[in-house]
Amino acid sequence: MANILLKASLETLYMVFFASLFSIIIGIIPAIILTLSAPDGLKPNKPLYEILSFLINVFRSFPFVILMVVIIPLTRALAGKSIGTTAAIVPLTVSAIPFIARIFETSLRETNAGIIEAAKSFGANNLQILFRVYFKESIPRMLNGIVLLIINLLGYSAMAGTLGGGGIGDIAIRYGYQKYSTPYLIVCSLILIIFVQFVQSLGNYIVKKMS
Amino acid sequence: MIEIKGVCKSFNNLEVLKGISLTINDGEIYGIIGQSGAGKSTLLRCINGLEDYQDGEILIDNVLVSNKDSKVLRNLQKQMGMIFQDFNLLTRLNVYENVELPMKFWGINTKSEEAKKKINELISLVGLDDKKNARPSELSGGQQQRVAIARALVLDPKILLCDEATSALDPSITKEILTLLQEINKKLGITIVVVTHQMEVVKQICQRVSFLKDGQVLAEGKPEDLFVHPIKEVKTFLQDESTLLPEAGINIQLFFTDKTSEPVLTKMARELNVDFSIVWAKLEDFRSNIYGSLVINFEAKNKEDVIKYLEKENVLWEEL
């Protein structure tokens, strides 16, 4: 049992870690575009903002289980196969991109407009304002968003697990539910609870240090 | 020198500035006063190029402020430091880093001894030597505004623009900040433009002032000339207490400047043999010079004599 659970835990961590990493790297791009093109942004552009915003809403409204099936061709193209722990990273990442993009956008746009104005008044250019003001001021809020993202991905990874991704969720279903093994069910749930608690506490600690 | 010539600006269809013209000389402390919505902050933002205007021109030492050429505008902005009502400091930077920031925008090596010296000197100038590592959230409003002032001076500007800089501060702190601004004006020879709705700000530091209403300059001049003997619109703004007057007899308001040292009233009473009562009087302090006005009430039959006497003595007066 210990071996099975250890292997599954590592699989979960592997999926969540890479899905988080990739979705943050990719999601930050639409977040920046949204922030700049928003009505109160540095380069307001209504059509661009509305279209991108709409696309993000569309992707966010897909239930994860369905998204996973819909993007199987993409998964196969990127991961070489459609099932397995590595393959599961693709749908996890795709589902997390619009989520984290929206969260980063909100974090960035919460920056006090007066501070942006002050930077402009000293002759800062848009790139400087983006990095030295928007990002600098938003880091604690963005970190809070990343904590939310990781916790969400833990939940999704359990779902991805059932479709051949492995991990804790997969064990919980296969041993706990299908084989009626209550101990497995309880231990798997406990592991997930500990993961979530750990991520949240670590996140809170870092945010407190940073802000 | 800042020259503003016939500047017009509207937001959508709302005209905010309707042909503003005024000139601000080098080394001057110039006030722009008016109620909220008069367009004074918009005017200041146009001077700095934060806001574009549709008509007229703004020249800083003969260079046009315009959004068309961003390079020229940036260079102009470097010459103009700005402070704000809400201080607008970066919350995650400490005092030193906040003052340092404009240098970073301009690619100045902030690690150089020269830059470090400059930042430290400015922090001492505003009296925050012991707060260098504090975050804005650990500072009081007055201290935050001091940081903002140091930040605004770090690029060696010729002009300091103050947008309601003391409106969020209590009266004693306001006084301290104004004293600091005066000191900066004297020590560094920087032109200071103050936008405010607070009379005491204008009275304490401004050498000249414009009174703005509905996007127009209604009056311009020395504060003592504008406010001791105010025109009707200015009076409304000042909410003069002179509305409570005796109904019988004649009420005349006399204005005194610091040049009036003669005891006009008692002399007049003796020479004309007239009795009058003093309805109210007030003294005001303009940049440490005392100006005052006084309302007297007397019987109607003495009106001619009194007016003749006042004219002869060169006293500014007005019948109420």
Brief description of this entry?
The complex is a heterodimer of chains A (211) and B (320). Chain A has 211 residues and is mainly α.
Task: Please provide a written account of the structure.
The complex is a heterodimer of chains A (211) and B (320). Helix content of chain A is 86%, strand content 0%. With 211 residues, chain A is mainly α. By secondary structure, chain B is an alpha/beta fold. Chain B is built from 11 helices and 14 strands. In chain B, the strands form 3 sheets. Chain B has a 6-stranded mixed beta sheet with strand order 6-7-8-3-9-10, sandwiched between helices. Chain B has a 4-stranded antiparallel beta sheet with strand order 2-1-4-5, covered by helices on one side. The two termini of chain B are 40 Å apart. The mean pLDDT of chain B is 88. Classes of the chains: A mainly alpha (211), B alpha/beta (320). Chains A and B meet through α6 and α7 of A and α2, β6, α3 and α5 of B.
Number of helices of chain B: 11
- The share of residues in helices of chain B is 25-40%
Any idea what the shape of chain B is?
A: elongated
CATH domain topology of the largest domain in chain B: Rossmann fold
Number of self-contained structural domains of chain A:
1
Q: Radius of gyration of chain B, rounded?
A: 23 Å
CATH architecture of chain A: Orthogonal Bundle
Biggest sheet record of chain B: 6 strands, mixed
Secondary structure: elements and pairs:
The complex is a heterodimer of chains A (211) and B (320).
Chain A: H1 2-37, H2 46-61, H3 64-70, H4 72-79, H5 85-109, H6 113-121, H7 126-165, H8 168-178, H9 182-210
Chain B: E1 2-11, E2 14-24, E3 29-33, H1 40-48, E4 55-60, E5 63-64, H2 70-78, E6 80-83, H3 95-105, H4 113-125, H5 141-153, E7 159-163, H6 171-188, E8 191-196, H7 199-205, E9 208-213, E10 216-221, H8 223-228, H9 232-238, E11 250-256, H10 264-272, E12 277-286, E13 289-298, H11 303-312, E14 316-319
Parallel strand pairs in B: 3-8, 3-9, 6-7, 7-8
Antiparallel strand pairs in B: 1-2, 1-4, 4-5, 9-10, 11-13, 11-14, 12-13
Helix pairs in contact in B: 3-4, 3-5, 4-5
